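Subject: Interface between my chains keeps coming out wrong

I've been trying for a while to get a sensible model of this assembly. When I model each chain on its own everything looks fine, but I need the whole thing in one frame so I can look at the contacts. Pasting all components below, labels as-is. Any help appreciated, I'm running out of ideas.
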Amino acid sequence: MARSILLLSSLAVLSSTILAASNFPDCTSGPLANNSVCDTSLDTLSRAKALVSILTTAEKINATISSSPGVPRLGLPAYEWWSEGLHGVAKSPGVTFNSDSDSNFSYATSFPQPITLGATFDDELVYAVASVVSTEARAFSNAGQAGLDFWTPNINPFRDPRWGRGQETPGEDPIHLSNYVKSLIAGLEGAGDVDGSEGGKYKKLVATCKHFAGYDIESWNGNYRYQFDASISMQDMVEYYLPSFQTCARDAKVGAFMCSYNAVNGVPTCADSWLLNDVLRDHWNWTGGNDDGFWVTSDCDAIQNVFFPHRWAPTREAAAAAALRAGTDLNCGTYYSRHLQSAYDQSLVDEADLDTAVMRLYGSLVKLGYFDSTDSQPYRSLGWDSVNTPRAQQLAYTAAVEGAVLLKNNNTLPLNLEGKTVAVLGDWAAATTQMQGNYYGQAPYLHSPLYAVQQLLGNDSVFYSAGPGFGDPTTNDWDAIWEATDSADIVLYFGGVDGSVESEGSDRTSIAWTGMQLDVIGEIALLGKPMVVVQMGGGQLDSSPIVNNPGIGALLWAGYPGQDGGFAILDILTGKQAPAGRLPITQYPAAYIASVPMTDMALRPDTSRGFPGRTYRWFDGDPVFAFGFGLHYTSFTADLSLAGSASSFNISSLTSDCTEEYLDLCPFASVPVSVTNTGDATSDYSALLFLKGQFGPEPYPLKTLVSYGRAHNITSLTTTEITLNLTLGSLSRVDESGNRVLYPGSYSLVLDVDPGLARLDFTLTGEAAILDNWPASPVDRVGSPSDEVPEGYFVGGYGSVNNAGDQLPLD
Amino acid sequence: MARSILLLSSLAVLSSTILAASNFPDCTSGPLANNSVCDTSLDTLSRAKALVSILTTAEKINATISSSPGVPRLGLPAYEWWSEGLHGVAKSPGVTFNSDSDSNFSYATSFPQPITLGATFDDELVYAVASVVSTEARAFSNAGQAGLDFWTPNINPFRDPRWGRGQETPGEDPIHLSNYVKSLIAGLEGAGDVDGSEGGKYKKLVATCKHFAGYDIESWNGNYRYQFDASISMQDMVEYYLPSFQTCARDAKVGAFMCSYNAVNGVPTCADSWLLNDVLRDHWNWTGGNDDGFWVTSDCDAIQNVFFPHRWAPTREAAAAAALRAGTDLNCGTYYSRHLQSAYDQSLVDEADLDTAVMRLYGSLVKLGYFDSTDSQPYRSLGWDSVNTPRAQQLAYTAAVEGAVLLKNNNTLPLNLEGKTVAVLGDWAAATTQMQGNYYGQAPYLHSPLYAVQQLLGNDSVFYSAGPGFGDPTTNDWDAIWEATDSADIVLYFGGVDGSVESEGSDRTSIAWTGMQLDVIGEIALLGKPMVVVQMGGGQLDSSPIVNNPGIGALLWAGYPGQDGGFAILDILTGKQAPAGRLPITQYPAAYIASVPMTDMALRPDTSRGFPGRTYRWFDGDPVFAFGFGLHYTSFTADLSLAGSASSFNISSLTSDCTEEYLDLCPFASVPVSVTNTGDATSDYSALLFLKGQFGPEPYPLKTLVSYGRAHNITSLTTTEITLNLTLGSLSRVDESGNRVLYPGSYSLVLDVDPGLARLDFTLTGEAAILDNWPASPVDRVGSPSDEVPEGYFVGGYGSVNNAGDQLPLD
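Reply #2:
Try treating it as a single job with all components included. I did that and got this:
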């Protein structure tokens, strides 16, 4: 397939270049040619200002909606701001796939979902994947089939195991998210581009960090994302909910943000000037004080939600005005187009408010080369030959392999399938688009597990049955299941959950295995045949019944593995590849959720209300599998040391020696990790380094991930070194006001999940030092979760009911 | 359309008779001809016994599964027991509709859902509808396209407004349900058949009262119907959860019952010998002590659920055995077919257990004439000409008209649409299958509201827009909405909820208006045009924002109105028909559910746990609209009297005077109600008679519906008399042990909802008398809801988690 693509692609480059012409403004001979926006010698801000200066008020309002009509009189084309690319160029208003599968731009590489990519703990891989996504996105854009900005990544932490969109994130840990997203944005926006299409001064794409902030509920027990008011303490906010966004803004300088549906401590985020201006633009210094091309879009209809159902603004015009003035520059939805003119007429917004938003938006397009000639821009020559290259295909496969996590293995794996017959069962066995999760595009192929096994063994040796489904008990599938299992030497069961159970708009109500799967699995396990269960889906399931069942030899989790998922899984099962992924989320026992209202945003356990806490840092019970857990086909030993070999550090020396703009980024130490493969199989090893100790404000977390890295292909009986870098921020804690502080105390570094492969202790001495002074909210917005969640149970209702359960009047 | 059907039908009778031959056993020349089952001179039990006596054990086991293969060696045909007919012959394993819409048996009359039929408070209408359903079902059966038993009605009370299947029931009140179901079963099973096809000694159909018992949760917050253990006090059980089933068994002698997915007080109902034998068969004397054709089926896979996820039985075989021995004769699912032989081999069941079940099942078919010659049975000659007759079409229309409930009218209705332009908006405007709810068949036509308005005014005067949807906020529909409203003189909005919000398997999480409907409605109401909102769907929505909005002139609720819903609604809006339906359920404020876990089965309020109580009898808050509420286009006055004019009654006289087998059925009094139409419009009037008073055990209900009846077409300034009959049971209360008792005290009868149109007081004197001694459960099974629902919040989890949240081992 790769060869025929390459043959076709030389034609494709030509045609896409021609097509692209009409998608970009004519800066040569059009009405804009003499406007400074077309003057490539000027800075971004000047160019954007020049364009804004010639727009009418109505044209500016049109420019603030995501399906912008452009300005025909100026030859400024319509522009669709809403393109998606969560794990590959994805279907969305801004992206078009040709429907004829033989034609160019009919597909794009479909990588694993972020939850699987997160399980790789391999940020170089994340960068490589993102680079392919942006290359393919540019190729689509050049063909007039995609925009230049993409509304990805979803970088909210996967706080509650029920969250339907947790699959879109790399996991539950804020440090992991921060490192991941920094690599991801570099790959998407083209910083240090490695694929030969260096953009020079141009941005490759604009990425959009979403959903800012505190968004991680779809619909739980009558609490809908459009209305939910998340009550979050400043400590939890800075420590848990915001680090990934701080990295996006302050450190990765991502091009765009998206404010979210929910409110935080009483204010809908799209109308929250404190969040969008004080924190994002000022404290994090996102834009360096300029409005030169960094913008905030609302989530779709989130500005409507400011009025309804949040009822935060008294009128529809006031909602639109509040959002614009708070710094929401773009509206996905209808409220700016419908109500901003009226808000303007009522003096709720003024010309300067509109100018700022439009400058930011068109500034962004300036940076993307939108107004510049094609021949000056290597990105503009990317064509169909850059899509789904052999390297991209290999990368999609590798990402799926690296992201698979081995949870149980009673000497069953790797399997020798030679000459064997195999039953391939379960509702994931023949998965196609299931493997893509959500926000996906047309894939070049979707190799199911069944297909992979059939390719390996031939159809005659493979017996397939779907069922038993993820929902209702099955009535009709048993016979097919027995027929398949009776015929086979070995049983492979592919199940778990999929998009029918966890999805946008729909959180789970159970974290146990769904439907009748456990009954089917349990009865098959009585047959005494070698049996492997592969757990699919993004949210974890309590797999202890499978772990505890001696009739089941192995359990592998593979998430949403993308276009080549079947081969990636099979190659691990047969030992062609070795598993080395790690769980990026805690696998809680099924009963966990009974004592945890999804609406309770707190992280720390609170016995007074029977709240066990959240994430591996705070959960005070026993997980089924811990964050970071993952077995191998071999065994490892490791040594840990601090470069420089000191074991005590003075805080004032550490801070005064630092020359970084932000103290939390100051280097603390490099930690060389020596890893020895003491077994037979060649294998990757993901080094996860945790910090433990009782320092800073009580209560203390059980441990905290501070750094990680992945070594590849460590052969038997060899040793590899992985260097993990720590900053002062790595050692810091957050106080109740949200300040990040370095505290004196005894610290321990532990490699790998408990009990750990190696450990290293050191102390910090002297006075505590603030690394980051958190900007207080203008009003007292430190929430009290226990006030909001009486007796562990809380229903906000929807539509006309506010969080206190009161009926509100309807205008 | 009716004429062409009649022309086609003479052919149809011939062909269906021929087809039918192979669906029935050959008692003339087949292997069974000499078996007594074919001897029409014998009683049912003898005939069924004779058949069972010649079956092998394996054949008997085959006979206990719903897709029974029959016994080919005996010429006993395969029989599919699972046919559906909730509100018309419905698609199901036992029912086939021809796909060519021009061919015979390609459709059946589709009546309103029971919730709409319940709102008519017209049991003669219920009987007439059920008679049409059974006639059409017999016609389908004769053509080989349906079974003879139908798994309807769903007669669980609509306890919680969130219940996804509440639409399948006539409402929340047990007396209403009991009267309704008695009429319904008479119509379905052919008692006193009025449509000219008198069955003589034969049953017309077998109906199936389901789901026995305590079933009214689909999926709430991790509590799934397959696993839920309903904790119900004996008082609530007898007073609320069981009366409709008692009527089915004891008074209507329905042919079949279905046990449910859930457990009650620790025992899955399909394995509950107390429920199925002590209560159903013995105490209610369902079968008169005989096993001559009354059977219990499991809900589909409910026997599997006894093992998993209930984990009530230790093995799969034990689950199957427990169900069979408890009196579950038929298994929809695989557990009897897969595990009963093994249970037999382990002596967990014996031959007699199997014989009993199979006798009951085939006895039922004997009563249906299954083994008897066609020519002796009028029902067997029913053909396609009996389906969707003009009378059936009229009845479907009438039922929809009678079931519509007017909730608000600021002199807006009836509308004069002559010469007007009308905007028809909302996601119900162009409803087709939406109008059928669930468990529906192919309808002959589905006249949407939009279609009806277009027929009345012509397409050019009607402006349509769908949106805004029931889920996510809309991004794209606003423009179409404005275009429609800008063009129109009058706005009709059809919205609410539908099967995408409330359905089998899916309870609601909010009882407010969903999606962005209130924002859209509210903005349209600002236009100042005459505006009517029609609220559709079975579960009530808190419509107070619509009630309180002066820009909205009227609100009508129409439920799921069936095949002619559009015309039924439009004819009410224009005054061609007058509204006289009454709400068969309470319309709670949206915040109600915040303090009511769905899993809390209690009815009575309990301030200690912040529980406001359930149903109009107990709810201690203010409803938005009360049970029984409904406006008219006219006004009524009424007088109430007790026939005989006494005002004091001695309890021992009342009971000793009675000759009824069951004391609660003893007549107490007739209550003639004189109703005068004091307004201009001709209108029906539904007389709802409530009992009030402080007698019997505390706490006292606010009031109790004791009788009702509907008078038709009362013309202006005329008076009609409706006679309502009361029994001793009408006056009784239930004590904590479940005994039904007549107590001394002061009683009041009040006509209509508060404050009532008329009132009448009387007293009972003497000692309290037990009308019904309730059979105690062999173990202490009086549940304590507050134990099961700690702090108002409860999650059972699913799959491998029991209700205490413990992880159970997997076999």
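Reply #3:
Confirming on my end. The radius of gyration of chain A is 27 Å.
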